[in-house]
C-alpha cells in the first residue's frame, strides 16, 4: 500500500509533547483556527509536503535513540487524516513496539471515540486550545479545557479516564 500523508515536519527529542524524550510528527490541516494557536503554519491542509508512509517511517526511525519513550502526533489536527494516521501508527507499533503513542486533537474524545485508529493510541490530548484558559503550568497541553485521555482504559470502561503519570 502506497498511502501518503500531509506532513508539516518531524522533530526529535521533544520533552514538552508527552512524557520522556519523544519524536513529534506534525501533520498538516486544522479547520478550527483557534485564536492563539501554537502552530498556525500547520492549519492549511494543503501546506507542508506530501510524503509516503514509508518515507515518514524512515524519517522517524532516524530520530529515535535508545532513550526515546514515544511518538507524538500533533498539528494541525492529526485526526483530519484518520486513515493514513491509523496505517502509520500500525506500522510504527510493528516496527517499534516499545514506544507509546500520543495524539493531539482539537476534537473532544466523545466526538471521535468511534474512529478505529483510537485502538492504536495510548493517550489522546483532546479539546480545542482556548486562549482564555491558557495555563503554562499544565503538563503537555495549552489550556485547562484540554484533557489527557488514557484511551485503552477509556475504551475498556466505557467512560473517559484521564491519563496519570506512570501510565501510558
From TrEMBL:
Coiled coil residues, start to end: none
Ranges for domain Radical SAM core: 16-168
Necessary cofactors: [4Fe-4S] cluster
InterPro entries in UniProt: Aldolase_TIM, NrdG, Organic_radical-activating, Radical_activat_CS, rSAM, rSAM_sf
Keywords assigned: 4Fe-4S, Iron, Iron-sulfur, Metal-binding, Oxidoreductase, S-adenosyl-L-methionine
Pfam families linked: Fer4_12
Enzyme class: oxidoreductase
Keyword Transcription regulation listed: no
EC number: 1.97.1.-
SUPFAM superfamilies recorded: Radical SAM enzymes
Reactions this protein catalyses: glycyl-[protein] + reduced [flavodoxin] + S-adenosyl-L-methionine = glycin-2-yl radical-[protein] + semiquinone [flavodoxin] + 5'-deoxyadenosine + L-methionine + H(+)
GO molecular function: 4 iron, 4 sulfur cluster binding; [formate-C-acetyltransferase]-activating enzyme activity; metal ion binding; ribonucleoside-diphosphate reductase activity, thioredoxin disulfide as acceptor
Family assignment from sequence similarity: Belongs to the organic radical-activating enzymes family.
PANTHER family: ANAEROBIC RIBONUCLEOSIDE-TRIPHOSPHATE REDUCTASE-ACTIVATING PROTEIN, PYRUVATE FORMATE-LYASE-ACTIVATING ENZYME
Function: Activation of anaerobic ribonucleoside-triphosphate reductase under anaerobic conditions by generation of an organic free radical, using S-adenosylmethionine and reduced flavodoxin as cosubstrates to produce 5'-deoxy-adenosine.
The name this protein goes by in its record: Anaerobic ribonucleoside-triphosphate reductase-activating protein
Amino acid at each position: 500500500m502506497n498511502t501518503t500523508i500531509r506532513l508539516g515536519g518531524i522533530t526529535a527529542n521533544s520533552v514538552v509533547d508527552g512524557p520522556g524524550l519523544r519524536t513529534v510528527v506534525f501533520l498538516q490541516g486544522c479547520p478550527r483556527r483557534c485564536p492563539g494557536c501554537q502552530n498556525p503554519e500547520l492549519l492549511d491542509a494543503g501546506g507542508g509536503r506530501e510524503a509516503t508512509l514509508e518515507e515518514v517511517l524512515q524519517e522517524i526511525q532516524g530520530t529515535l535513540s535508545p532513550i526515546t519513550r514515544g511518538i507524538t502526533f500533533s498539528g494541525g489536527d492529526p485526526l483530519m487524516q484518520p486513515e493514513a494516521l491509523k496505517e502509520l501508527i500500525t506500522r510504527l507499533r510493528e516496527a517499534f513496539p516499545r514506544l507509546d503513542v500520543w495524539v493531539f486533537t482539537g476534537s473532544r474524545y466523545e466526538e471521535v471515540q468511534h474512529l478505529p485508529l483510537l485502538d492504536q493510541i495510548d493517550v489522546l490530548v483532546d479539546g480545542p486550545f482556548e486562549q482564555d484558559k491558557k495555563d503554562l503550568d499544565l503538563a503537555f497541553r495549552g489550556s485547562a479545557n484540554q484533557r489527557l485521555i488514557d484511551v485503552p482504559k477509556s475504551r475498556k470502561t466505557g467512560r473517559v479516564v484521564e491519563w496519570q503519570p506512570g501510565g501510558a
